[in-house]
Amino acid sequence: MSKEQKTKYRFSFGPWNIHEGADPFGPAVRESFSFGEKLNMYKKLGFDGVQFHDDDAVPNMNNLKPQQIIDKAKKLSQRLKDTGLSAEFVAPRLWEDPRTIDGAYTSNDSSCREYAIERSKRTIDIANALETDLVVLWLAREGTYIREAKDSKKAVQRLVEAMNAMLEYDPKIRIAIEPKPNEPMDHTYIPTVGHAIGLGQLTIDSSRVGALIESAHCILVGLDPSDEMGYALAHNKLWSVHLNDQNGMKFDEDKTFGSVDLRRAFNQVRILDKHDYGRNGEWVGLDVKAMRTQKAEASTKHLSNSRKIFLKLLEISRSLDDSEMNKMIEERDYEELDLYIMKALLNYD
Fold it and tell me: Which residue ranges form the domains of the chain, and what is each CATH number?
């Protein structure tokens, strides 16, 4: 790939990535930043894209009429333009409302399922107002605590029905499914990118259903994120990423990208760059949390550090000699290839 052909990456994150440090075992430890203050941080940190939940864009939207939601979203759209930012996607926040305790699209209560679909349509209205065609579905509570509570076949059919309703509502909108194997549910119905792509094939327009892959979610299910990315890329379905890192198969940690396993991070950067991710406008998205120990004035370093690590690993990947690597691969000298990669990562001859 010639120098002029190489993709120049754009970076995004969601306002929830700048947070107060609360966790399940302790309260907030930092003062809050206002939404406006967060927006003003993006450019300074090297980011041009904003990821939104629907109620990040339009707070208290359940108390507003559809046109009021659109009007408020349009005001935000102008604010983004004034700040030099773009909306990457909008995602319906379907896991906090009391009506989604038993799931949203897969709830055993039909009125709750109806609420989830209507909320998703309002999310599409917001996406249109913010001039993005991408809606992300993190199917947070679409699963079970006990297997007998739901019929998994019916659950999949209900997911398809919900997505069909969204696809029918707007003929331009695209849906990216963000798979995760567990948390907050014990088990979810769409744990991997293979499940997500398969689910899309059941909809009325599979060409408009793709995937968002999060590094930590792949690790939670025991898979390598770069392999999951490669699988989605092979299907032309990788429409967004959430890069972060993770200490093993436990709770979702959302650590700074590359901070746990640098080689694992390197392979994610390399697979994306080798196969032209970003060439069609895709963003390099982050979903990372600041350590609870950080003071407020230093509580955005996890974002700038993740971006710096991505760009450094990109530089390393592009500096490798493909002909040398291909020779090692042809000779099946994988020990030499292993050392070649380690030398590049460790910066020694």
Answer: 3-316 (3.20.20.150)
